[in-house]
Amino acid sequence: MLRFYRGQPLKRGRLGILPATFNPVTRAHLALVDAAEAQHQLGQAVFLLPTEFPHKPYTGASFEDRIAMLDGAVGSRPRRAIAASEEGLFFRIARDFREVCGPAVELFLLCGRDAAERIVGWDYGGGPPFARQLEEFQMLVASRQGALRIPAEYAERIHAVDLPGSLDQVSASLVRQAIREGGRWEHLVPEAVARRIREQRLYQRRDPEE
Questions:
Q1: pTM confidence score
Q2: I need a labelling partner for 110 at 20 to 30 A (CA). Which of 16, 30, 97, 175 fits?
Q3: How far is CA 198 from the centre of its chain?
Q4: Phi and psi (nearest 5°) for 27?
């Protein structure tokens, strides 16, 4: 079930969806969405958080903390939405959005190169093969720590998003590690996110999600 916490479902145009745990949301997440919007003419971008994890609870930061951090990171920026879904696989996420957005919206799932490589090569068991899934959505893949080599048969449905190399080392895990070890981390996240982390004293202990 798809629930919007900020914004409304797009009804026409190009919709970018960034599924992630946002533990916490970083400047790299925002840069990916900004670059995807500029390079692929997105009409709206949705930051999509899972409502729960299989076989384990939220740790490090609660669901409510992550929604609050996303809300602070997005601020008043137009064409940005925040939502949560029970689904994790891209084709199931796409079907959720198709149901609420309707047929006039083009769906683009956003991710980094490493995630894209897993998704392309994943064994979907009884689910539809990956080539069939790409009939339901397209992918926008960030060039983090190298560009994805897109197989020729998927070239019309998987597209590159160019990001500056300076973002390669920006990650949520690096933020959490720096907080635990007393290092510098505020420059890796938006100021509103840093403020929430300080106020709630988040990430003081090692996160079992790592």
A1: 0.93
A2: 175
A3: 23
A4: -65, -25
